[in-house]
Write a structure and sequence with these properties.
The complex is a heterodimer of chains A (811) and B (114). Chain A has 811 residues and is an alpha+beta fold. Chain A contains 22 helices and 28 strands. Classes of the chains: A alpha+beta (811), B mainly alpha (114).
């Protein structure tokens, strides 16, 4: 009995310890986690590594100082480039290691290894589009240049120096919660991170949906539904600019794949609202006679924040700005002489080819009347707690087959089997890091031009301003020469006639330097008007850029505070152009008093999407209903389609009030714009009543827009919701839902240079740190921080909260 | 008195051991110490429970207090428990206490065999 008692308590103890050490299912290992000596308590309010004054690290050449300012921005002062990037890696890892790890895992399709079954499909698609192969090609290009090779090697070594110091108790909190471990960093991971951005920014197209729409609605309707240009649009390079250059006539032909309509789906497309604003105002229009540059990239808003602010100082470089945790250098920033920023180009550099295989083995495919062999690669996807999964990927010379019989919609019986090979500029070797390296050190316009030539994908609009007075913008990327219409639809993959054959010469990319009007600007709109000699397509923005240009046109003696107001502008241009038409249609409609009040509110609205207002909610719901009734032709179609854009719907509504698309199919009557507006009003008001009943939230834009900043692992407790920022997509302050301005920066190129910035988060990735989301409140309020810019000989010590000295480990 | 010294001895030895060894060492400490105290099994469990619970409570409370409970209140929401840092201290006390108590009772019952 005594032995039994002993064995019983021994077994219970061991089982208890095992469960508390390993965790079960989604339950974290509670013993390890709750233990104050090693568990989460060790992450609480930790000093983010700022207390220790001196560090000795293997791999450092000389001494490096790191000064933290009150936002915990590290200002790194090194004696040479090697040490500079080493410490950039070390410091970034200290604050953001888990985020870097998770994002590179996501890029490579290796999430399931740590997160389990729920991410298998995501991983599989990342593998199929070939993120790792793309990163490997880029890494080869990076390593071929001794400068970029040094930068990425040193950065990697710095991250690994930090990882090798870690014990369980210093692991970032999320490792403890999700129960996995940091693994050594590699140069490939940095390349993967850049490809992750490339995917986010150049991965959007609608080739398959457009092909289906063409089959359903016909060619004439396509010009109405997906027009190439919009009325009164304002391209980045102003209308009327003469384009020079020897134009090579397109040699590829636009042969659309011969398909009946496709019921598979291209999934995991990036958010089409990934966009941005940037502009630079020449000294002739500013109060102090020096250029001012502004940039706010709009991306998914997460915590830990997407960006990490840093200042990099060494002989030959003194640069401040934001970096991507996991990639060296500064992506958007400024130095004493120049400032630059980016918006996404939106030009389509991603095509799909329909491949005709000989048989179900898929080992040969038809090309120019020959049979070409495929190559097959088996991808092994490790899954936590389960057997690994194997996925065979078939390669053609055009690219990998990403979507095939495995991605058909099960509930759509009339499908046609297709095998779609992906041709994508992001798959080509390029060395974007060199652009950043050179921009960080740039002195003038010539340096900027030389830096840009390395930047191929994701294509960006690089805005520029220099202390010497130049402003410029380049629509920079590597673009194929296309025949008219090429790449808008699925291409025939059985003939070389459709292949990409030439690239547009870099010098002929759209650009403008010191224009007459005294400013340059971009907000993801068309880069040029129709006189640009090359054909391109894409999904371009139509509203923000016009508002920005209107505001800039109206300003003289521009100051930084004007620019702050502009970046936070909430003027709803869609409403300003459409609402008067909608209200007119309602003039003779009898309404009960409550709905009459809605119209009165809308009549008095100043078109500002302020957080506390109700009118933006009414308009949004009304506009959404108007859209869905107008495009009722799309409902119940057997194939995936994409709805026309806001710009298209608006242009149609203003230009052609009796267009056949306004007719509602299920009614006998022939409706026009006005009837649709009236029907939409009732539908919108009903849906708002439902929204209020189901959410129980007040009917203001703050709650209806649902702006939130979410932890990367979707942990509510580490997220911030219902933020009262105001704004919307197609508004300069493009904050809505999970999306918005991820970094607002304003740089005045005076001597000394002055800059302001803010992002929705904080420098620390640790939810237990006071620096985790400390900038969020000012971001919501549209306020800014003065950015502290120091020099090696003037360290502005009084703005600093901590100074650390790094030196080589003594042997 | 013996009960009090048992608690103190487990707590002190466990604290020193935790400086270098993983968290579950507290069970081993409670096990070994309780082997030398020939008392009632429930008394051993109580001593192990209280010793480790107190050890974890005090250190966790110090860390929590120094950080204005930023993290413990977020962790409480995560589980999800009421948004109160005391919840996490309570969880630590229960988990640590159970492990200490089970270690102690196992040591006590081993002793009973001889």
């Amino acid at each position: 009995m005594k032995i039994f008692n002993f064995l019983l308590s021994l077994t219970v103890s061991l089982a208890l310890i095992f469960v508390l050490h390993k965790g079960i299912g989604d339950l974290p290992p509670l013993g390890r986690l709750l233990d104050p000596y090693g568990g989460f308590w060790q992450n609480s309010g930790n000093d983010d590594g700022m207390q220790q004054e001196s560090y000795e690290l293997d791999g450092l050449g000389g001494e490096v100082s790191v000064l933290y300012d009150s936002l915990m921005v590290p200002h790194i002062i090194a004696q040479n480039d090697e040490d500079l990037y080493y410490i950039q890696g070390y410091i970034t890892a200290r604050h953001r290691l888990w985020q870097m790890d998770l994002q590179t895992r996501a890029a490579a399709g290796k999430l399931s290894e740590v997160l389990g079954e729920k991410t298998i499909e995501f991983d599989r698609r990342q593998r199929r589009i070939g993120m790792v192969r793309a990163a490997e090609k880029s890494l080869t290009a990076m390593m071929a240049d001794p400068v970029s090779a040094m930068v990425v090697k040193q950065y990697t070594a710095g991250i690994n120096a930090y990882i090798s110091e870690l014990k369980y108790k210093n692991y970032p909190l999320e490792y403890k919660l999700m129960n996995f471990y940091p693994e050594p960093w590699t140069e490939l991971k940095s390349a993967l991170l850049l490809k992750y951005m490339a995917n986010m920014l150049s991965g959007y197209e609608n080739d398959l949906e457009y092909t289906n729409a063409l089959k359903i609605f016909g060619e004439d309707a396509m010009a109405v539904l997906y027009p190439q240009y919009y009325p009164n649009q304002q391209p980045i390079v102003p209308t009327g600019t003469i384009f020079e250059g020897n134009v090579i006539l397109p040699e590829n032909e636009n042969i659309i794949a011969d398909v009946k309509g496709i019921s598979s789906v291209i999934t995991d497309k990036p958010d089409p609202n990934n966009g941005s604003n940037n502009w630079a105002v020449a000294g002739s229009r500013t109060a102090n006679g020096k250029p001012i540059l502004c940039n706010d990239p709009h991306l998914g808003l997460n915590l830990p924040a997407l960006w990490f602010q840093v200042q990099l100082t060494a002989p030959g470089i003194n640069c401040y700005g934001v970096s991507l945790p996991g990639a060296p250098c500064i992506i958007i920033g400024f130095n004493d002489s120049i400032a630059w920023g980016v918006t996404n180009s939106e030009r389509d550099v991603r095509d799909w080819y329909n491949i005709k295989f000989k048989d179900d083995n898929r080992s040969e495919y038809s090309y120019d009347n020959n049979w070409m062999p495929t190559k097959k690669v088996v991808e092994k996807i490790k899954v936590k707690g389960h057997k690994a999964l194997h996925d065979t990927i078939v390669f053609t010379h055009l690219g990998p087959i990403v979507f095939d019989r495995n991605f058909e919609l099960k509930d759509k019986p009339q499908h046609q089997r297709v095998d779609l090979a992906l041709k994508w500029q992001a798959m080509e070797p390029s060395n974007e890091l060199m652009t950043l390296y050179k921009l960080n050190r740039g002195k003038n316009y010539t340096d900027y031009e030389k830096a840009l030539v390395h930047f191929e994908c994701p294509a960006q609009n690089f805005v520029f301003a220099s202390a010497s007075g130049d402003i410029a913008i380049w629509n920079q990327g590597r673009y194929p020469v296309r025949a008219m219409g090429h790449g808008k639809y699925l291409l025939d993959g059985s003939t070389s006639a459709t292949a990409w054959k030439h690239y547009i010469p870099q010098s002929e990319n759209p650009h403008i330097v010191n224009p007459q009007r005294g400013y340059v600007s971009s907000a993801n709109q068309h880069p040029t008007d129709q006189t640009y000699p090359y054909y391109y397509s894409g999904v371009f923005e139509y509203f923000r850029n016009r508002r920005i240009n209107n505001l800039l046109d109206s300003l003289q003696g521009v100051t930084a505070s004007d620019m702050m107001r502009m970046q936070n502008d909430k003027y709803n241009m869609t409403a300003a152009e459409m609402l008067p038409v909608m209200l007119r249609a309602m003039q003779n409609v009898k309404l009960d008093p409550a709905r009459g009040r809605v119209l009165r509110d809308l009549n008095q609205w100043n078109y500002m999407n302020d957080a506390q207002q109700v009118a933006p909610v009414y308009f949004e719901a009304w506009w959404d209903a108007f859209n869905s009734i107008t495009w009722d032709e799309y409902q119940g179609q057997p194939y995936p389609l994409t709805l026309p854009s806001t710009a298209t719907t608006l242009a149609l509504a203003l230009a052609d009030s009796s267009n056949i698309f306004f007719d509602v199919k299920h009614t006998a009557a022939r409706e026009g714009r006005s009837e649709v507006i009236i029907m939409a009003f009732t539908q919108a008001m009903d849906s708002l009543d439902n929204w209020q009943r189901s959410t129980g939230k007040p009917l203001t834009w703050q709650y209806y827009s649902g702006l939130r900043v979410t932890h990367l692992a979707r942990l509510e407790a580490f997220s911030y919701t219902d933020l009262p920022s105001g704004g919307n997509k197609h508004i300069v302050n493009a904050a809505r839902n999970t999306h918005g301005p991820s970094w607002r920066m304003i740089v005045e190129l005076t001597t000394p240079v002055r800059a302001w910035g803010v992002y929705p988060g904080g420098q620390s990735g640790n939810p237990g740190s006071p620096y985790y989301a400390n900038m969020l409140q000012k971001w919501v309020a549209g306020e800014y921080y003065n950015l502290v810019f120091i020099h090696a000989d003037n360290r502005n010590e009084k703005s600093m909260i901590s100074t650390q000295n790094f030196k080589a480990k003594s042997k | 008195m013996k009960f009090i010294t048992q608690i103190i001895v487990i707590a002190i030895v466990a604290m020193l051991a935790q400086l270098i060894l993983p968290w579950w060492i507290v069970a081993v400490v409670a096990f070994v110490v309780s082997f030398f105290y020939n008392n009632h099994a429930m008394a051993a469990f109580g001593a192990g429970f209280l010793a480790v619970a107190a050890l974890w409570l005090v250190y966790a409370a110090i860390l929590d207090n120094a950080s204005q409970s930023i993290l413990s209140s977020k962790m409480a929401q995560l589980f999800p428990l009421p948004n109160n840092p005391v919840m996490m201290l309570l969880m630590a006390v229960i988990v640590g206490g159970l492990v200490g108590g089970m270690g102690a009772i196992t040591g006590n019952r081993l002793r009973k065999i001889f």
